[in-house]
Amino acid sequence: MLNLLFTFLVLPVFAQSNSAGFSQGNVLTAFPIQGQVQVTCSGFNGEANAIYNCRDVVLEPQAYDYFVGPRDEKLRWVDIIAVRQDGTTRVKTSAYDGASGRTTEALNLWISTIFQKGLLALGTNEIKYKLYTADNTRDSLISGSFKAVVNRAPTRQCQAGSYESTDINDCSSQYSICQRFFAERQFCR
To answer: Is Signal found in the keyword set (predicted)?
Structure first.
């Protein structure tokens, strides 16, 4: 009888606490990518040429992903704290759909711009989470942790490309040209 009671009371709690992570998995791969693109620009405002050596690091399976965790309709918010292998910390707060057991929007795991920073870094990331109810007390109802590992892969080389543009500004916009270049080449796959 005691074994049966243990099975019904303890195992669901154990399974619930170990089910947290990212929807596409907690082992990710960072691929450095590179390639060269030549741009010829001509239009009413002049002509120009540019050659860009494009470089980026892409995260697979994806740079944005959902945090998944326990299902409980009372849960509405989650704080996610990532302690990276290098000791730096990133914090994200997101709305949480307790009925489905995941964040309402995908979290930025990797992309860094002047407006946002990715949650993860290369190496082992210790992820701590705290789930909250809809009230504003900010007392966590459930908390836990898991590890997310980002492995570095060898560099992938894209075949060189060229573009012709009717906008002379494209010859001075390396970022947008390189993003287009990589997207059209499936990020050098």
So the answer is: yes
